Amino acid sequence: MLMRTDPFRELDRMAQQLVGPGAWSKPSVMPMDAYREGDEYVVAFDVPGVTADAIDIDVERNMLTVKAERRPTAKADNVKMELSERPLGVFSHQIMLADTLDTERIQADYDAGVLTLRIPIAERAKPRKVSIGAGSGRKEISG
């Protein structure tokens, strides 16, 4: 059997055991990427091993909150865990959204452990042309 040693992984595992997994009151960090694609912002969160029904997305004013909970899988009585490195518990991320985003039309998709949110740019924030009306001509000021 091949054994790999990583002293830092062991320290992380021991620290996790001491502190315990994330809870709703103190969730762990959830990694994310954010970028602009055309007329919308895209935010992708890594939440592998989480079912779609264990993900909660809330928007209050301009604060976007994403919470996910990775629950332990049910095991038979005769199963003895030899190694457990995948963290369980609650993961969370909060993002302050700009006023230029349309929070009423956020779309969420979940595929292969990645939660992708698409947030359109509000119409009022898009650049637009302003037409110039023809005035009544020049007026001379006399004094």
Number of strands: 8
Q: Bin the strand percentage.
A: 25-35%
Question: Unreliable runs, pLDDT <50, ≥5 residues?
Answer: none
Give the helix level as a range of percent.
Answer: under 10%
Distance between the termini: 101 Å
Biggest sheet: strand arrangement: 1-6-5-4
- Give a short account of the largest sheet: 4 strands, mixed
Give the overall average pLDDT. 81
Number of helices: 1
Tell me the series of helices and strands, N- to C-terminal: HEEEEEEEE
Gyration radius (Cα, Å) is 25 Å
Q: Which structural category fits the helices and strands?
A: mainly beta
Judging from the principal axes of the Cα atoms, what is the shape? elongated
What are its keywords?
mainly beta; 143 residues; elongated; 4-stranded mixed β-sheet; 4-stranded antiparallel β-sheet
SSE arrangement:
Layout: H1 7-19, E1 28-29, E2 32-37, E3 40-46, E4 55-60, E5 63-70, E6 89-96, E7 107-111, E8 114-120
Parallel strand pairs: 1-6
Antiparallel strand pairs: 2-3, 3-8, 4-5, 5-6, 7-8
Structure report:
This protein is mainly beta and 143 residues long. The protein is 9% helix and 34% strand. A four-stranded mixed sheet has the order 1-6-5-4, with no helix packed on it. Strands 2-3-8-7 form a four-stranded antiparallel sheet, with no helix packed on it. Strand 7 and strand 8 form a beta hairpin. The radius of gyration is 25 Å and the shape is elongated.
Summarize the structure.
The protein is mostly beta strands and 143 residues long. The chain contains 1 helix and 8 strands, in the order αββββββββ.
